[in-house]
Design a protein that fits this description.
Length: 365
């Protein structure tokens, strides 16, 4: 699942935390204070990549910075329709006077990057991202891997991108607890459900408007709520009575359990659900390689089509098939994190010369 919450320019702090978990429990002596995910030497010249602090690739409100958070006064003057919900206080709910309550009208399932690189319906890599202060920039992430191939995550690493102090320490603790809980409860193997569509609706998320359906399996009498992904990826609303097989992971929102589909089989066709979030397209202005966690990562600065600077980590250079050079047109997707005094896009998908490639990332041990 790949979901990008929109982000803004923010003043950042570089203090980091690192954490490693044993398969069964967390040991306090495994904490290492001030261990960064992005080492300082890798970012020595990052400020030279910019002509000023003009980073904001989502400047949708003409004439002012769009911080992508809800504000009643901003809503009056803005044509931006993305922020009609205060996501800092609401993670799911219904609109007023809506009786169609079999599932919520809006919900936020966060951002998790799932990698099934060999297409065996088991995840080779999973990373959950955490936003301590609800500013749309991720402050930490936990990566999981199944070291013995038994379908259960038995190893986990947790890294913080920004300082957990300044009022965010409690949120950091909650994120760490959530990461530990996911290790115990989340399966590395996808959950599968087959049924016919009983109900369908469009549901708002911070990243997009998604199609959510209720599937009914007549043979077992069971039902499952399934998020099929962004509505823009469908030509029409799914037909009631249509048979669908969904493979993915389950997520709990309030009293509802929803299957976040990663793969769909309908009309005899197997489809990959794209949860990378919004696309940012531009021209590569500068490239460099940086040593990050003992691996050479390909970094690029692009000038978006909206004229904004965008700094992107394209992942391990050895895993990147796309040809990266200055002047190349590129489209990237992925979550944004806080690093130094810039927002950085951790790309999960890249499109160059008409070819789209999923960026293979591995759990940092």
């Amino acid at each position: 699942m790949r979901y990008l919450r929109i982000f803004s320019r923010v003043s950042l702090v570089t203090a980091m935390l690192a954490l490693a978990f044993s398969p069964a429990l967390l040991r306090a002596d495994e904490w290492e204070e001030n261990t960064p995910y992005y080492e300082d030497d890798a970012w020595y010249d990052v400020s030279e990549w910019f002509d000023g602090n003009d980073y904001n690739p989502t400047d949708e409100a003409i004439g002012r910075w769009d911080d992508e958070t809800y504000d009643a006064s901003d809503a009056v003057t803005s044509s931006d329709q993305d922020n009609d919900i205060d996501w800092s206080t609401n993670s799911y709910g219904y609109y007023d006077n809506n009786a169609n309550d079999w599932y919520y009208d809006y919900y936020d399932y966060g951002y998790t990057d799932y990698g099934d690189y060999n297409s065996d319906n088991a995840f080779d890599y999973t990373a959950s991202y955490y936003d301590y202060d609800n500013d749309g920039l991720y402050d930490a992430y936990a990566s999981y891997w199944d070291s013995d191939g038994d379908g259960v995550y038995d190893d986990i690493s947790y890294y913080s991108f920004s300082d957990a102090s300044g009022g965010n320490a409690e949120q950091a603790k909650k994120s760490i607890a959530d990461a530990k809980s996911k290790q115990k409860s989340q399966q590395a193997k996808m959950t599968s459900f087959t049924g016919t569509i009983k109900s369908a609706k469009k549901v708002k998320t911070p990243a997009s408007t998604n199609i959510v359906v209720q599937l009914a399996d007549s043979s077992s009498g069971k039902t499952m709520i399934v998020d099929l992904g962004p509505a823009n990826d469908f030509d029409t609303m799914p037909r009631l009575g249509q048979s669908v097989t969904a493979n993915g992971v389950t997520y709990k929102a309030g009293d509802k359990t929803v299957l976040l589909a990663q793969k769909l089989e309908r009309n005899g066709t197997l489809e990959q659900v794209n949860r990378s979030g919004r696309s940012y397209t531009g021209t590569i202005e500068k490239t460099m390689k940086s040593k990050i966690r003992s691996q050479d990562h390909q970094m690029v600065k692009i000038k978006t089509d909206k004229g904004k600077n965008l700094l992107v980590d394209l992942g391990p250079a050895k895993n990147l098939d796309a040809k990266i050079s200055e002047g190349t047109k590129i489209t990237v997707k992925g979550p944004a994190v806080k690093i130094k005094d810039r927002a950085l896009l951790v790309a999960t998908e890249v499109k160059v010369n008409g070819k789209t490639t999923d960026i293979k990332r591995v759990a940092v041990k």
